[in-house]
Amino acid sequence: MEDNRPGSGYRRRAQLKIRIKADRGSEFPCLVCGRMCKAHDFQEKTWRHLNFFQHHCYITASVPRTNCPEHGVKMVKVPWAHKGTRFTMLFEQAAMVLVREMPVAAASRIMGINDKRLWRIVFHYVNKAMSRLDLSQVQGIGIDETSSGKGHRYVTIFIDLDRKDRPVLFVTEGKGRETIEAFKKYLCAAWGTSYLTPVKLKYFFFKNS
Ligand SMILES: [Zn+2]
Fold first, then answer.
1. Domain limits at 59?
2. Among 107, 125, 169, 189, which is 20 to 30 Å from 10 by CA?
3. ipTM of the complex
4. 14 in the same domain as 87
5. How many angstroms is it from 37 CA to the middle of ligand 1?
6. Do residues 54 and 62 lie in contact, with contact meaning Cβ atoms separated by under 8 Å?
7. Structural element, H or E, at residue 31
8. What spacing in Å lies between the alpha carbon of 29 and ligand 1's midpoint?
9. Which helix (H) or strand (E) covers residue 130, if one does?
């Protein structure tokens, strides 16, 4: 445990810092082909991890880069975090559990992170889940407009009418025609424009109007 902010109260500011090092002479798999290679060099990276009691916890590791004869220099994948994030998977999981139950701003206060960073985590997982959605069997889509909170902020939800379990396909702010345009854009991005022939679009929207 260390207090890296001089003059601050120890109890409030203390952080737990965990340092991970690879054994000397170890070999690591190339990110592309899995071929075992000696470390070419190391790059230091730090991730925020779940709190240790009330203290923020950070993991710092010298992450090896391999130099595969076929694929060149690549950074090894660490088992505790996704590529490009500054949080461990367990931290992100805990944040996502909170986000299911409360607004992002409230969840970010509990997790002790900036809400912009939490939004980035949310977008990462939502995009991942959306990319796995199989829309090939969708026959009819229900559109539900609802207002969020007290103001006049509308949210439109698109659901698969034939699916009982997790039927939500797409959610967007606003109501009316603009939301259908947003949904079409999403379908085009996910399935390509060839999927959205005028005939199919008619079928999608007229069936449920
Ligand atoms: Zn390789």
1. 1-80
2. 107
3. 0.98
4. no
5. 9
6. no
7. none
8. 8
9. helix 115-132
Task: Kindly state whether residues 4 and 71 are assigned to the same domain.
Answer: yes
Residues 160 and 199 in one domain: yes
CA of 39 to the centre of ligand 1 (A): 13
Task: Check residue 23 and report its DSSP letter.
Answer: P
Q: Do residues 55 and 21 both lie within one domain?
A: yes
pLDDT tens by residue, 8-31: 444 557 999 999 988 888 999 999
Domain count, the chain: 3
Looking at the structure, tell me whether residues 65 and 31 fall in a common domain.
Answer: yes
Integer Cα distance of 200 and 26 in angstroms: 56
Structure tokens at 136: 């090939």
Distance 55 CA to ligand 1 centre (A): 40
Length of the chain equals 209
Q: Long-range pairs for 197-205 at CB < 8 Å and ≥24 separation? A: 204/138, 204/140, 204/141, 205/141, 205/143, 205/180
